[in-house]
Design a protein that fits this description.
It is built from 20 helices and 22 strands. It is of the alpha+beta class and 612 residues long. Strands 6, 7, 8, 9, 10, 11, 12 and 13 form an eight-stranded antiparallel β-sheet that branches. A five-stranded parallel β-sheet has the order 2-1-3-4-5, with helices on both faces. A five-stranded antiparallel β-sheet has the order 15-14-18-17-16, sandwiched between helices. Helix 2 runs parallel beside helix 3, helix 11 runs antiparallel to helix 12 and helix 18 crosses helix 19.
């Protein structure tokens, strides 16, 4: 195994030499020794070491903490601080750089070795975690239309707009609720096509997949089963979703457990889609197929009776059989991929047959034409190239391609297969195309989840830092002031101890809801720690800090009055720091100032349940 390469950042020659000797004795490789923060950044980028040992107190304009922050922003390399000082203020600043360890000089060999091993292991774990996140993002590319994410106890942490539309629940209303209260399904029994199209179901035609818990009994559902079995669970093929507003929607659904790197279950993802049009298309195709079968049977019997006497009749029977096989090929594609746009084209790529479940669709407007007659030149050229490749090679293909209609761009999943005659000659192509635009948008939405707090739906610390840095740049350009509000929930430890962590989580969700009601949509709201919230808001009037604090108190009081049966009252301690472009500072410094002011407010109330 290769030796770990370590960069030493130390401005004292004697200490640097001693560290180098200790590291070599411990069987590490010293990549380089530098004395200034700026040089440390350059060398880290250049050498890509496995770990950085950083002295906090450095000569020059940049100290070790600032250098460490810049390294962490650019590279995922573990870092250990070295210092001869250990005061609280220094520790608080050092925490913001997210070091992997902290060693007080003089450095002992055993302590140095243990700290390095832990830091290197943590770096490996972080790398595996990022790989797991990328694998999850790749998996989500194949999901359907609607998505609900839950925590490990089946409580909802996320819903996309399609899930909101199908269930009738908004995300803000559903957050924190048990998924079975929002996703209510029944198994379809005797159901006519008419009632399904109207969105209502006759009495006695459905049997429940999950049961209400009026008697206090635990309900079984696919999310609970996926969390328990740590696997993917699918609903029966003919399942109906009962929305909040009473609609009955035919769906297909599956739930998958989400596991962390240690094999623990952190939640589940429920994926479902509206298949009402698919069911209707199936019914249409079945009727057409039955009618075609009747016609073929009648024609076949007629040909059988005349086959011995008339060769012409035999020829007609052969033609009918070929027509039957071609029709069956068409319907097999339509049945497999419905509801989609299904088509046949000849060797000149002229449409000879099309099917689309949309009622306003008119096949006569397409039959006999090519893509060049129907689409802009660039799009027609792209589709023609794909289809011509299948014609020339005789091999089917599948490709996702963007198309433009009016003023919007949408994405199609295009499947093309060769169409052959009885002699296996390619006489054209048959294909199907489905609009996957919603899925593409959903994938983009899910990629943003790494910036959102799972419990409250607010931004997490990472999301807050990214957006706050952008807001500071905008404020500097516009010469506008900002308010940094740091809020800490009072007595959360007592709530957890007396009523349980589930009640504590509910308290955090309610505080997040009150913060949304208090501040503007343009303000940046985040949960940055266990019971800590941060808000970056525009300071648009004189006395803005007092106005914000008073409005928050009023909203909390109104919320408490709306919960008369609850056994505790929600309150928060608040610290507000001003940001003035005339005297700029970093977001970390703003957080530190507002945190200190908040702690003074909390001590004044008599709370001391916050570890510092």
């Amino acid at each position: 195994m290769a030796k770990a390469r370590i960069l030493i950042v130390e401005d004292d020659d004697y200490t640097a030499e001693a560290l180098s000797s200790q590291l070599e004795y411990l069987d590490y490789t010293v990549a380089a020794v530098v004395t200034h923060g700026e040089e440390a950044i350059e060398k880290t980028i250049e050498l890509q070491p496995d770990l950085v040992l950083m002295d906090i107190k450095l000569k020059g304009q940049m100290d070790g903490i600032e250098a460490a922050k810049q390294i962490r922003n650019r590279l995922e390399i573990p870092l250990i601080f070295l210092t001869g000082y250990a005061d609280d203020e220094l520790l608080q600043r050092a925490k913001l750089a997210e070091p992997a360890g902290y060693i007080v000089k003089p450095v002992q060999g055993s302590e140095l070795h243990a700290s390095i091993q832990i830091a290197l292991y943590r770096g490996q774990v972080d790398t595996r975690l990022r790989q797991t996140e990328r694998r999850l993002a790749a998996t989500l590319k194949s999901i359907g239309d609607a998505v609900i994410a839950t925590g490990p106890r089946g409580r909802i942490t996320f819903m996309n707009p399609v899930a909101e539309a199908l269930t009738g629940w908004s995300q803000s209303e559903a957050l924190g609720r048990d998924v079975t209260h929002v996703f209510r399904t029944l198994t379809e029994g005797t159901l006519t096509e008419g009632t399904l199209a109207e969105g209502t179901l006759p009495e006695g035609t459905l049997s429940p997949v999950q049961h209400t818990d009026q008697a206090g009994e635990e309900r079984e559902d696919i999310v609970s089963r996926s969390l328990l079995d740590r696997t993917t669970v699918e609903l029966p093929a003919r399942t109906i979703l009962r929305s909040r507003d009473g609609r009955s929607i035919a769906i297909g659904a599956s739930a998958s457990a989400i596991q962390d790197g240690g094999g623990g279950v952190t939640g589940a993802v429920l994926v479902f889609r509206d298949v009402t049009e698919h069911r209707q298309a199936e019914a249409v195709l079945r009727r057409a197929h039955d009618e075609l079968e009747k016609q073929v049977q009648s024609r076949t019997a007629e040909l059988a009776r005349a086959s011995e006497a008339l060769r012409v009749e035999r020829a007609e029977r052969k033609w009918a059989e070929e027509a039957l096989r071609e029709s069956e090929d068409r319907f097999r594609v339509a049945m497999k991929h419905s509801p989609v746009f299904v088509f046949n084209q000849d060797r000149n790529l002229r449409y000879t047959w099309v099917y689309n479940p949309q009622q306003e669709f008119e096949p006569e407007a397409i039959i006999g034409k090519t893509d060049a007659d129907l689409l802009p030149p660039e799009q027609a050229s792209r589709l023609t190239e794909i289809k011509r490749r299948t014609l020339d090679s005789g091999i089917g293909t599948r490709q996702e391609t963007p198309l433009t209609e009016a003023d919007r761009t949408f994405y199609c999943d295009l499947i093309v297969e060769p169409l052959r005659n009885e002699a296996s000659e390619v006489i054209g192509i048959t294909g199907a195309s489905v609009d996957v635009t919603d899925r593409k948008h959903l994938e983009d939405r899910l990629r943003g989840l790494s910036l959102v707090d799972e419990l409250t739906g607010l931004y997490n610390r990472r999301g807050f830092m990214k957006l706050a840095e952008l807001q500071l740049k905008i404020a500097n350009r516009a010469r506008s002031r900002l308010l940094q509000i740091f809020a800490d929930v009072d007595g959360l430890k007592q709530i957890n101890d007396r009523f349980g962590h589930e009640e504590g989580d509910l308290a955090l969700i309610e505080v997040a809801r009150v913060l949304r009601q208090t501040f503007r949509e343009s303000d940046v709201l985040a949960r940055i720690g266990g019971d800590e919230f941060a808000i970056l808001a525009a300071d648009v009037q004189d006395g803005g800090a007092k106005v914000c604090a008073a409005r928050l108190r009023d909203k909390l009081e109104t919320h408490n009055l709306s919960k008369p049966d609850r056994r505790y009252r929600l309150s928060v301690s608040v610290g507000i720091a001003h940001y003035d472009p005339a005297g700029p500072c970093s977001i970390e410094e703003l957080l530190s100032r507002s945190d200190a002011l908040m702690y003074e407010n909390k001590r004044g109330k008599g709370y001391n349940d916050r570890a510092r």
